[in-house]
Amino acid sequence: MQEPALESAVPGPGSVIAGRFRVGEVVGRGGMGVVAAGRHLQLQAPVAIKFLLPELAKSPEPLARFLREARAAARLRSEHATRIFDVGSTDDGLPFFVMEYLEGRSLDRVLEEDGPLPVAVAIDYMLQTCEALAEAHAAGIVHRDLKPANLFVTTGPDGTPFIKVLDFGISKAPAPEGELLEGASLTAPNEPLGSPQYMAPEQLKSSRTVDARSDIWSLGVLLFELLTGRTPFSAESVPHLYALILSAPPLALSDVRPDVPRPVVAAVNACLEKARDGRPPHVAALAALLAPYGPPGSAARAERIARMARAQGAGAPSARRVASELELAATQPLGSGWRPATRGAVAASIGMGLLVLAAVGYRLARGDAPAATARTDAAMAGVSATGMAKAAPTAAPPAATAATAAMPASTTSPQASAPT
Fold first, then answer.
1. Which residue of 33, 41, 145, 228 shows the fewest CB atoms closer than 10 Å?
2. What CA–CA distance (Å, rounded) separates 11 from 90?
3. Reported pTM
4. Which helix (H) or strand (E) holds 417?
């Protein structure tokens, strides 16, 4: 039901805006906007329409952030980024943009209703998220607000769970030529933007100094939460939370979830290094660390992430270079990004796994992708098992049937695609 405070400003159900979109019921609200279901009248296709809250429409800063969200998302072609179809203003001057309509659940609802996820499922969701971020980071876009509420689980064409990355409203992006998207009038130098539980130490200090590695910190928090149902830092007050993130070690993942493979624990720990230079330098490196413990097809997805970033001109390394970086990281002293108890395990299992990824890239270039993917899945299972046998007894990546059975089914009830 439409709230009385919004009835006189946000177009109500049945209203037509821009001559093409009929507004439906409100399906989501947040601090900056309200999302309504809608329908494209000519195409007879469902859409979601996001309106800026009327009380913010005359303020330059919220308006600029609202437009930045639409522009940032519109620049991304990844199937894991929410598509933007149109942008405009109502007859009363209220800004809106039109995006794809999604059915399913946000990840915060998944965690609330289903609890912690199986390891393979959590990694699959992270790899899908990394696909969207690979393109975004290559374009110079840092999301800055990755959290379960901004990851949406819908259903892919083949019926499997499919992740969409939402809400680029506080993203940091390069300005189009001749425009200023983020200057002194839009973001104060020391103003933190984001959700504190998922923010990197440098983001707490200044949102303007973040880069892609700040998103990688958030991915580490996300993966920790998907596996345990809680975040690695928790406190009763915001100042205490800031202090923990800035100076205290995270909760030990292996204490909360002992069945998580040690290289996955090492990857999460690396993401949560206080100094950004100690984290995986790009999502391609993180994807390579996680792929051996995802469901079948994860190896090919990790290689696609690296290839996507390279194609966008981000200077993303080849699989061979990533393997070299991981081998070097394994020799570094404490505080350089890898915990001494797990550095050897990571180098053993992932270093060889990335050689398989390199083979995938070669075969994809030759055009025999399906066969390469099947062979790679089998090889990955063997690599992870033999590599980890030297370090500690750890469960091998799950079989295809187990991973498929563990995938949570998406609901059929519609939900807004853009938390506001």
1. 41
2. 8
3. 0.70
4. none
Question: At CA 354, angle to CA 222 and CA 135, rounded to 5?
Answer: 50
Q: 95-100 and 105-106 as β-strands: parallel, antiparallel, unpaired?
A: unpaired
Residue carrying structure tokens 């040690």: 262
The alpha carbon torsion through 251, 248, 283, 172 (nearest 10 deg) reads 130
The CA distance from 158 to 163, in Å, is 13
Specify the DSSP element, H or E, that contains 162. strand 161-165
pLDDT in tens, 205-214: 877 778 889 9
Sequence-separated (6 or more) residues with CB below 8 Å from residue 219: 126, 129, 130, 133, 146, 271, 283, 286
Residue 258: closest CA among 387, 392, 108, 351: 392
3-state secondary structure of 292: helix
Say if CB 74 and CB 187 are below 8 A apart. Answer: no
- Give the closest residue to 364 by CA, choosing from 303, 287, 321, 311: 303
Catalytic (active-site) positions:
145
Cα separation, 2 vs 357, in Å, equals 51
Provide DSSP, 65-110. Answer: HHHHHHHHHHH---TTB--EEEEEE-TT--EEEEEE--BSEEHHHH
Q: What is the pLDDT of residues 304-334, one digit of tens each?
A: 898 876 765 545 455 455 555 554 444 444 3
Q: Which residue has the tokens 């064409």?
A: 157
Comparing CA positions, the residue from 53, 50, 55 lying closest to residue 69 is: 50
pLDDT of res. 414: 40
Q: Tell me, what amino acid is at 90? A: T
Task: Report the distance separating Cα 203 and Cα 192, nearest Å.
Answer: 6
